[in-house]
Design brief:
The structure is a homotrimer.
Chain A: H1 3-37, H2 43-68, E1 71-72, E2 76-77, H3 115-134, H4 143-157, H5 159-165, H6 171-175, H7 183-207, H8 222-239, H9 249-277, H10 282-297, H11 306-327, H12 339-357, H13 360-365, H14 380-415
Antiparallel strand pairs in A: 1-2
Helix pairs in contact in A: 1-2, 1-3, 1-8, 2-3, 2-4, 2-5, 3-4, 3-7, 4-14, 7-12, 7-14, 8-10, 9-10, 9-11, 10-11, 10-12, 11-12, 12-14
């Protein structure tokens, strides 16, 4: 056993540990819905279990390959790399019983992660992304339609941005696009898919003669709300620090940036909400404040100093408060948990901030040595170029994910006579007499 | 510090982490009962706390030695090895402050695990085994009778199968019997002890003049049900991958087989249940599906490929559905949580499957280099021999555990004037007028 | 990369993992309040979220430095060491991106922990200490007063004992005072601050004309109670074993002492309570028994054998039962969760026991090679000296923390026209007609 093997072991241990934490987050989103909307929404838990199971199954089938196998011209991972179902019945799969996954060799990221470790980590990421989308479908979308959608989602829709940005042979990665732990690949893309759901739902609601999209009422269940927040918070301990794909000096900084941004955003959200209303903001803003801080730091947690994380966290509080008001204006949009003002906006905002706040020393420590300093740290022309690349990447990914998602939903809607439920039976609208 | 010490450290860290996850599972079984039977069953939580405490205390007293100390003629671990209570007051116990536990030296398993790490891991296993038994006693068995039973259970009943199969000097181990993480030692044996409880309970119920065993009604509490499932699922992340007793390439495959079997069994249970009833199977089948996949893969998670794990998971769904119907026929058997169709049958089925699906390359990577290929991978005569050994081991262990358990319950019943509660007071039967 | 770096990596991984477990404990205290007092106390969760956020923010601001930077004459850590906010925007902070934190170099503790790891671990400790204090304020103290108090608390009040006892240049540390994981620094000091709250509250209650301090009624919620216990129990897996600040042979013994003391205290509390009342002690005593065992072992978990841990655990049961009765006599004291008979008394009792039960071999293995054997192990004069130092340290720390806390509360009370709530509105006293 060489010294390199000895180093690889803690790296794999760390990423396995992180994967388990991220795995918690999918079902935690189910508890979040129950915490915000009430215990009679237990279908949320069945939905998030279904997402967990479908993610593991279909990512193993082929989705992991389409995202993380060597790409075909930078566009999509080779779906047959190593074979379907992670090699099926054979032990002769690269990185399974010996050696490491191709992109974790010293030629690429060099952290020595094996196929088993990497698969579990990324399947948990794919799973939680769809769980974020799922907060839109509550009571409105048939469970079988949502399950059917998950199949192309895990096979191709989630995989494409990952193949482009996180795969070291992806075309956006090669262009210089960076997204540390998924401001775009997870949170932004979840928003794009969510928007596709909203469009299809609204199209069907208009057909039903509705003038506006029925909204699900907030009905707090404090204990489950805070338990879900706690699970999400510790989940993010895997989500961001685990994304270094190694345990070293850089990882320990990512723990700091992640937790300090959360604390800062929490205090800032409470503070500005108090300024707005002059009363105790209550648990819902406490929870959303923490989440907003965690979301905003996600795309650049490995690129910035602890101090910058606190600034970004502090800024993200008022952004959420303003955006929440803005999104609530649209009568065709029902977003009870805050997918758009929280996850989508926060994720994209953080991604753009890379070009402003990144610092090369931190980025290098977490495995991204080529990222240049941000505009605010004298990055100059390099930073402006980075800004252009990030914005370009956002536009391309959001458009692609939206289009593919909408296409799938349109097909599923056609096959199942609509993806929406019977609103009278679900008590979303009063029964006709 | 030598290179070997450096390797041992991550192995111990991994097993400590796994032990903590397995430790969660005992009280998670208490939440499972509340999730399936309703919040007024809070005694389940006291019971599972009692099991956790008793397991740590009596395994430390002597039970760890009877299972894992060098055996006396392969039959039982030396109860005085290192002294009672893990050496009591002295630091001079092998593996405590330096060196490793005897069976973890390079002469045997060679993973460098110390006494402290190994004790916590195995005490958590013993604890969760009795927690599985405990789902049978709900409302029917006096808490003091159950506690008294736990003492001989942790001192000798749990230890014997472990000494025979997991101790490298045990007679079944030396014969070639293998059981990766406890298809027989945990799940099968829990069924045998559960059967002994059922027999003693039914004997007392007949004396009370009952014509059939009163059944506890299912009354779902979705949030606690899914939280317990989540705890059990992540518990299994320690249960199976931790059973490699090391963190290396083999461990990472066990993570895959465990989680993929769970996902596959979940989808298959939902699918076949839907075929049976043509309606949404609901949360209870979702939870039982995941559990069945985790149970079936347990005895061979370290011996098979990810593809085989998905096949076994898929098959286990209909097995559970069929067995559940079959066991529900017996009027003398009340098994509200599914100990027999789930844990016992699933564990034994998986144990037998070793002889069919094992692949030498995977077994070697998780520390079992002498296991031959299974029948379906050209194992031929060696596989048939393995099949005979596994079946023989199952028969011997189930019979021994049943006999010892029944003997203890008979004695406790005699001492306490019956182990069963006052059924009228517990509202299991209507009060007499 | 040198061999030393390779050793440091698992140490950091272990402490990060431990930090996450300790982080869970703050909000777990919120669930404990809900579990003991009922679900309508959801403000407890907002309070514990506020503590978590404030701890991270103000410890990052300056509190970590005042506790763990090189001290000014042994009295307080240099508040500007490395700069506020962990260096703010610069990567040039010792231990952040390379090297290790000064006190973790081989000149001092030598475990190679970095700034990031150490900060998260200790911020979680500070946070949970205030959470223990917070069980006193339920319904009685304005949330804004409690939040204001948290600022000086994390900047200076929590830091002083840590700087004196855990900082290797602290004056009490240099005198020979030892407190393994916080019997005094956490549990005892939490009691001192709690007492300051009680004094300020009682002073204001007397002004309101009250003859005794209104008590909050116990109203068990079994599921949340046991979930919080489970979170606290696994939290202690990080709290004590993590306090070795390394993963090695000593750590694995601390896992044993921690868990065995818990199990032993649990059985002993149940047993003695049963002797007192001749009926099932119920969940509340089960939970308090486990907690008492965990508290008592905290200050010496790294200094004693597993056998001694079981003895101390066993003794701690009756101590808690007696103290609970004693403290309940005072009409000016409302302590529904048991801060004083549990945390304060248990922590101080354990701290004193160091001088009786410590064994040099165990202390050395967990990083304290200069601690002498205790009185019961032939420590003789050295042990008597240690006893004097421990008692002296307790008196100095308790007095200082009480005085500083009371001063801050007095100032906050003056600024906010009292720290207490409107008792009629909170339904602590009947509304006046």
């Amino acid at each position: 056993m060489s010294l390199q093997d000895v180093v690889n072991v803690p790296n794999n241990l760390w990423v396995l540990f992180s994967a388990l934490l991220v795995f918690l987050m999918t079902i935690a989103v189910g508890f979040l819905e129950i915490g915000e909307l009430g215990e009679d929404h237990s279908k949320s838990l069945l939905k998030t279990m279904l997402i967990s199971g479908s993610a593991l199954f279909f990512m193993a089938f082929i989705g992991f390959n389409t995202a993380f196998a060597p790409t075909i011209r930078g566009f999509i991972g080779d779906p047959m790399y190593g074979g379907v179902f992670l090699g099926g019945l054979t032990p002769n799969v690269a990185g399974l019983l010996s050696g490491v996954w191709w992109s974790m060799t010293s030629e690429y990221f060099g952290t020595g992660i094996t196929l088993g470790t990497y698969f579990i980590f990324e399947a948990a990421f794919a799973s939680v992304t769809l769980a974020l989308v799922g907060v839109i479908v509550l009571k409105k979308v048939k469970l079988e339609a949502f399950f059917l959608f998950s199949i192309p989602y895990f096979i191709i829709i989630w995989s494409l941005p990952a193949a482009w940005i996180w795969n070291p042979t992806g075309w956006l990665y090669l262009m210089g696009m960076r997204d540390f732990a998924g401001g775009l690949v997870v949170h932004g893309a979840a928003g794009a898919t969510g928007l596709a759901f909203i469009c299809q739902i609204w199209r069907e609601e208009k057909k039903k003669g509705l003038k506006e999209s029925p909204k699900v009422q907030i009905s707090l269940n404090p204990s489950w709300l805070v338990l879900s927040l706690l699970l999400l918070w510790i989940g993010w301990f895997g989500f961001n620090p685990g994304s270094v794909l190694a345990i070293d000096y850089g990882t320990e900084v990512v723990v700091l940036t992640t937790f300090l941004s959360a604390a800062s955003a929490f205090l800032s959200t409470m503070f500005f909400r108090y300024l707005m209303t002059r009363q105790n903001p209550g648990l819902l803003y406490a929870v959303n404040g923490v989440l907003m801080g965690l979301i905003v730091i996600t795309p650049l947690a490995g690129f910035v100093s602890p101090g910058v994380a606190m600034i970004l966290g502090f800024v993200s509080g008022p952004i959420f408060l303003y955006a929440e008001t803005w999104f609530s204006k649209f009568k065709w949009l029902s977003d009870p948990i805050g997918l758009f003002p929280g996850h989508m906006l926060g994720g994209l905002f953080g991604t753009v901030m890379i070009a402003f706040f990144a610092k090369q020393a931190f980025a290098a420590a977490s495995g991204f040595p080529t990222l240049s300093d941000g505009l605010l740290f004298g990055g100059g022309y390099g930073a402006i170029q980075q800004l252009g690349i990030e914005v370009f990447g956002i536009v391309v990914v959001m458009a692609t994910v939206f289009a593919l998602s909408y296409l799938c939903l349109w097909l599923i809607g056609a096959a199942l006579h609509g993806i929406t439920t019977d609103y009278e039976k679900e008590k979303l609208i009063p029964s006709s007499p």
